[in-house]
Specification:
The complex is a heterodimer of chains A (300) and B (211). Chain A has 300 residues and is an alpha+beta fold. Chain A has 9 helices and 11 strands. In chain A, 42% of the residues are buried. Chain B has 211 residues and is mainly α. Helix content of chain B is 66%, strand content 2%. Chain B is built from 9 helices and 2 strands; from the N terminus they run βαααααααβαα. The longest helix of chain B is centred in the last third of the chain and has 31 residues. Classes of the chains: A alpha+beta (300), B mainly alpha (211). At the A-B interface, α3, α7, α8 and α9 of A face α1, α2, α6, α8 and α9 of B.
Chain lengths: 300, 211
């Protein structure tokens, strides 16, 4: 796996470029989740558990189909079920496989203070290297999709890796391999967009006028994309954000303010030094002591 | 050399209190800057690595805050701004050029020190409140994400203002000779008090016998 380091194009908290002699010459990868084909069987969740050796706690029924109720350090992907009554009065069951979107401009990576705890590969996958994670949770703060989870046990951040280990050796992610309806497909981003376009055309011919691809530009596009029947209302799909982007507050906190603040701190100290050299210290001399003595005698 | 005529400016208790705050501040600034800018991440080595830095920082923060409450309570009244303080500030040019003879008489603290005091108070309130919100292990889960983002920014801004202010504070102690001794041994010479804090000097001299 060591050679995989040559495929890293961005490392968190690193100001200089990473070794990136290799490129993704075969194109960047993407996972396409066709929500319209999903039957909610959760096989992807099971495959994810199996491949990644994860076992979440057995919870209790919370009154809806989501199981477990939320993403966690042990559940890197989760089917979210939403019931939507469309304008025709019909019920639609919108099931979205939630998990890391692998943004081209990842908010987690931008926010992370620990060098190399979050990396982005040339193929577009955003991966956490937990051995470098310090558990501050800034990735949670930075993520526009509420994906990373901090383990209660080891205080490290975890999320979907897009099976970077499988992809590195030419396999598709475990969830893709297992999906029985072909709702999840994997390939180069270009191919996936083309495939999505065909699917959208088909959906439109079946009356879903607003069918479309979810590849939000606000985060530079994502390497996990959705085909949605209601691409104009992504919020219907258990709160999929309409125009996700790195929050302006995170942008300010982790952007220009970093070098500027450091510069201002150094400048403040330097101004003090210049003052000392230019104007000099303010000293108390014998005349002052004498004046003080006189005044003390006066008051006595 | 200590002189029997020296004036006590800070009692041992206040001095110890000040240095607890000061040492915690230095540790907090180093660990905080380590997580603020990648170029300073190596500072985490001083604390036993990145994880230890993340663990220790908030607890040291509580120590600083707790200690500062006592220090602030003691100094609160002496730091109220008065009419002459605003005049002092308008003559900042005389201040930086060491022309103290042109300035209005100064009480226990000058206007610069007072402003610094209130800046520290404000920054520490900001740091405490935002620090709790971004203390991931214990508290972040109860706050909405927008508040965590705002708190992260507020924490950085308050810390930045505080660090710059403390640099000014430290420099002022180096600049005005005789000040450091007030905080290490507790006393200043009568000449120092007469020159820099004349109103305070007169107040003090009323209640003491000349020797």
């Amino acid at each position: 796996m060591a050679l995989q380091s040559l495929d890293i194009v961005r490392r968190s908290a690193t100001t200089l470029p990473s070794p990136e002699v290799r490129g993704a010459h075969t194109g960047q990868v993407a996972k396409l989740i066709d929500v319209t084909k999903c039957i909610g069987c959760k096989a992807c969740q099971v495959a994810c558990m199996e491949w990644n050796d994860l076992r979440d706690e057995i919870g209790t029924c919370t009154g809806h189909y989501d199981n477990p109720p939320d993403l966690s350090e042990h559940s890197w992907t989760l089917m979210r079920f939403a019931e939507y009554e469309n304008p025709n009065g019909n019920l639609e069951w919108l099931i979205r496989k939630d998990g890391c979107m692998h943004c081209a401009d990842p908010g987690c990576l931008k926010a992370c203070p620990s060098p190399g705890a979050i990396v982005q590969y040339a193929n577009g996958i955003v991966d956490f290297h937990e051995e470098n994670c310090i558990g501050c949770g800034y990735c949670v703060t930075g993520c526009p999709f509420d994906v990373p989870r901090i383990s209660k046990k080891d205080k490290k951040a975890y999320k979907c890796t897009l099976c970077s280990d499988r992809v590195a050796v030419g396999l598709e992610p475990a969830c893709v391999k297992t999906c029985p309806t072909g709702a999840i497909v994997f390939g180069t981003k270009d191919d996936m967009k083309q495939h999505a376009a065909e699917r959208i055309e088909d959906l439109k011919s079946r009356g879903f006028d607003q069918a479309g691809l979810y590849d939000p530009a606000g985060v530079g596009g994502t390497h996990v994309m959705y085909v949605l029947h209601h691409a104009d209302q992504p919020m219907l799909y258990s709160g999929l954000p309409e125009n996700p982007k790195i929050s302006a507050m995170v942008g300010l906190w982790k952007g220009v303010s970093k070098p500027l603040a450091l510069l201002a701190i150094v400048a403040t100290a330097f101004a003090g030094f210049l003052h000392y050299v230019g104007i000099g210290p303010n000293e108390t001399d014998e005349k002052d002591e004498e004046a003080a003595r006189r005044e003390l005698e006066k008051t006595s | 050399m200590s002189d029997r005529r020296d004036i006590v400016r800070y009692t041992a208790g206040t001095r110890i209190n000040h240095w607890i705050v000061a040492i915690s501040f230095v540790l907090l600034a180093l660990s905080g800057l380590a997580l603020f800018h990648p170029a300073l991440f190596w500072l985490t080595n001083l604390f036993g690595g990145g994880v230890w830095t993340r663990v220790l920082h908030p607890f040291i923060g509580l120590v600083m805050l707790f200690a500062f409450v006592f220090l602030a309570a003691k100094m609160w009244n002496d730091n109220r701004m008065q009419e002459r303080d605003w005049r002092w500030l308008r003559q900042a040019r005389d201040v930086v050029n060491n022309r103290e003879e042109n300035l209005p008489d100064v009480g226990r603290y000058n206007a610069g020190q007072k402003l610094l005091f209130w800046t520290i108070v404000l920054c520490l309130i900001g740091l405490l409140l935002s620090g709790i919100v971004i203390w991931r292990v214990y508290f972040s889960m109860v706050f909405p994400i927008w508040l965590i983002r705002f708190a992260s920014l507020l924490h950085a801004v308050s810390a930045f203002v505080l660090i710059c202010s403390i640099i000014v504070h430290i420099y002022a102690a180096i600049w005005v000779k005789g000040s450091v001794k007030a905080m290490t041994r507790g006393t200043v010479t009568p000449g120092w008090a007469w020159k820099h804090h004349r109103a305070w000097f007169r107040e003090m001299s009323k209640g003491r016998e000349p020797k």
